[in-house]
TrEMBL record:
The lineage of its organism: Bacteria, Pseudomonadati, Bacteroidota, Flavobacteriia, Flavobacteriales. Residues 1-27 are annotated as: Disordered. This is Uncharacterized protein. It comes from the Bacteria. Residues 1-15 have a biased composition (Basic and acidic residues).
Length: 340
């Protein structure tokens, strides 16, 4: 099914939203284990620029996988495993003009993983409909429910390993999603329900994770060459470890520089707003003792309300920047500790 690639990857910049020109990051909510993606569209000139070799693909995949993994209370080891898996299955390819196009489809839907929907079998043969397409195990009611959750099944022409050896192209029912976060969370759920891999309870290292996927039937790569392990799914996935680790560490360092910049500028904005509010309050106290200046008093009150509203917004932003930085630093520390 899923077929990781060992080809050289490109690095650029993209987004986890439907508009690939906007950057996306992780915003904290009241529940520390529940994260939602939020757009940050302001691009000031003073913001540190990401190095040119930081992946477009990482900009899409890492926030989405972090969100999904944190929602499911997974360890940072499993975050790394999922990033490597997504990179191998749907990562940027050096031969493609648009490196991130493998996860953002032409119809605007996303696919971080090459997760296929289960199909019906009879006498070990695929059951097909009147159009020759395989029938799904999912019922119409289940498909309708998934659509409401932003999960869709599309027939996609893909290169699959044949049971007789070699590869051939065929239409496969494949999960696609309205957001990359939904792609990550649904994949985690399917790994547990269909492939018997509960990432919350089975905290495997990458090699164990890849081996489980290969042995469970999730992937077919290498099944027809039992004497050659070089083309097996797990072998190819593990071979990406160093490449993904190095690119990921560069990306995380870049993002941490961005959070530092945002924290610094937002703290400065908060300080200026607090001073402004204090000054306006002093003027209002003076005006309260004078007569005939109702309009001036009203204008200052409105200015104070605006400043206080902006202050509340900036405080929320500051908390988000700090929270994002902490999450990225946790992933960075886990990767460094894992590869000492």
């Amino acid at each position: 099914m899923a077929q990781p690639s060992t080809e050289k990857k490109l690095d650029e910049h993209s987004s986890t939203q439907r508009n690939p020109k906007k950057g996306t990051f992780i915003a904290a909510t009241k529940n520390k284990n529940n994260f939602i993606p939020s757009n940050v569209v302001q691009r000031d000139k003073k913001k540190p620029k990401n190095p040119k070799f930081i992946s477009d693909w990482l900009k899409v995949a890492v926030p989405a996988i972090l969100v999904g993994a944190r929602q499911k209370s997974l360890s940072m080891q499993q975050v790394f495993n999922l990033i490597v898996q997504a990179y191998g299955e749907q990562g940027p390819n050096a031969k493609e003009k648009r490196p991130a196009s493998r996860i953002i489809q032409s119809n605007g839907l996303y696919r971080l993983f090459n997760e296929h929907a289960a199909i019906r079998k009879k006498n070990n043969k695929t059951v097909v409909d009147e159009h020759g397409n395989p029938k799904l195990v999912l019922s119409p009611e289940e498909i309708k429910k998934l659509r409401k959750e932003g999960v869709h099944v599309e027939m996609l022409l893909q290169e699959e390993h044949s049971s007789k050896g070699g590869k051939k192209k065929k239409n496969s029912p494949t999960f696609v999603y309205e957001s990359p976060v939904t792609s990550a969370t649904h994949h985690i759920e399917v790994l547990k329900s269909r492939w018997h891999l509960d990432l919350k309870k089975q905290d495997k290292n990458l090699k164990q994770f890849a081996t489980h996927l290969a042995n469970s039937g999730y992937a077919t790569a290498g099944k027809n060459t039992p004497n050659d392990r070089s083309d097996d799914y797990d072998t190819k996935l593990v071979s990406l470890t160093s490449q993904v680790k190095n690119q990921l560490l560069i990306y995380l360092a870049s993002q941490n520089a961005y959070w530092n910049y945002r924290i610094k500028t937002t703290k400065k904005d908060i300080s200026n707003l607090e001073s402004r509010i204090k000054t306006i309050s002093s003027h209002l106290e003076i005006l309260a003792e004078l007569e005939g200046i109702g309009e001036g008093h009203y204008l200052l009150e409105k200015q104070k309300e605006t400043a206080e509203r902006t202050l509340r917004t900036d405080i929320r932003k500051l908390n988000n920047w700090r929270h994002n930085k902490q999450i990225y630093q946790e992933l960075q520390a886990a990767i460094i500790a894992n590869f000492k």
